[in-house]
Fold this sequence. Notes:
Elements: E1 6-9, E2 15-20, E3 26-33, H1 47-54, H2 66-73, E4 77-82, E5 87-94, H3 98-111, H4 118-137, H5 144-152, H6 167-172, H7 175-185, E6 191-197, H8 201-212, E7 235-243, E8 249-256, H9 262-275, H10 281-289, E9 293-300, E10 308-316, H11 322-339, H12 343-360, H13 364-378, H14 387-392, H15 396-406, E11 411-419
Parallel strand pairs: 2-6, 7-11
Antiparallel strand pairs: 1-2, 3-5, 3-6, 4-5, 8-10, 8-11, 9-10
Helix pairs in contact: 1-4, 3-8, 9-12, 9-15, 11-15
Amino acid sequence: MRIPVESYHLPNGLHVVLSEDHTAPIVAVNLWYHVGSANERLDRTGFAHLFEHMLFQGSANVEANEHFELVQRAGGTLNGSTWLDRTNYYETVPSHQIALALWLEADRMGRMLPGLTQQKLDTQRDVVKNERRWSVDNQPYGTWWERLPALCFPEAHPFHHSLIGSMEHLTDASLDDVADFFRTYYTPDNAVITVAGDFDRTATMRLIEEYYGLIPRGAPRPALRDMTLPPTFGSTRRMVVPDAVALPRLFVACRTPVFGSDGYYAASLAAAVLGLRTGCRLEQSLVRKQRVASQASAFTYDLAKGSDLLVVDATAHPGITPEQLEHAVLAELDLMHQHGVTDVEVQRARALIETSFITSMQSAAERADQLSRFATYFGDSTLINEQVARYGATTTAAVSSLARERLGPDNRALLLFVPTEAQPDTEPAEMAEAGV
């Protein structure tokens, strides 16, 4: 399938992407700002995520939480999310409500600061702190998604620190900090707006010009710190985390080529061979045959800067020790590293990925999100139509070569959670190897 794509820029730098599809009477509006936790000051970690919450607290013409109420009353859905290098906001509404979704996003892009108050900041700071307590601090294995990047990226790297941030930094965030962050990053020349679904092209372009055209460009933004990294860690890194958990759980991360590069597609297929769906190697070997794991999967982070990560995630079967789990997982990585993959495995992995991608493109919301993604990272939303072909052009030999170069013992970061009362005989977490 080919996704219809049209893109252009307003004079203020806003990148506009349009994708018409009149199959269903709905339309998705998706706005990506090219800012995430990587852009934060080191004394204000968690700020990008805090700001995601702040943007739902009203603007010049919208009261706190009214954004949600207006979209939901119109029969739509909405949300936002923050990642290492982007923040996005999105609505899916009935086609005749497109003006509402476009206007709401424009009002907070151009007129958020008049609605900013200390009370709103205090409230959302507490919300984010509670989110951290619930999803990280008090959740079994909950710290994995901040510990693993910290283990994989050196301290000075923009991807090293926690996305959700520290309690101390959240407490220190001031109203002036919020205003400065908004002025710096929430500008039209740092944004992509995508409209996908059932809409009238001429009328939509007119609305976008009317609502967004007068919002001024931003000042030059601070450059990201250096993101260059060697292709491998150079050795095996290992961190053991005693936690209040019932079963050991192991994460193994390997540095792989960045999203969008030729090597990325080989890494993505390698991850699928290892850990996608029930026919993958990890499921067949660790879960079904050996019964050392109750679940096992593999995935890529899909990072477009510096280095991507291929991650294996396995939770022990009851009665299995941390050492047994680690040995079994590393044996599977060794097998792929030493002997590569087969044509049959790559064909299966490619079919699963392509089917998932094509199916997701039937959703206006998912299509809009992916179009924004390619426009943000590469300045070219039409790359969405090359994805199936890129996977199709990636050979078994390329996947085996990726495994040989990137999945060996010289490129593994191990994060092992163990029940507090069953710590293995190993160096403590704070002694894990550092460096690049």
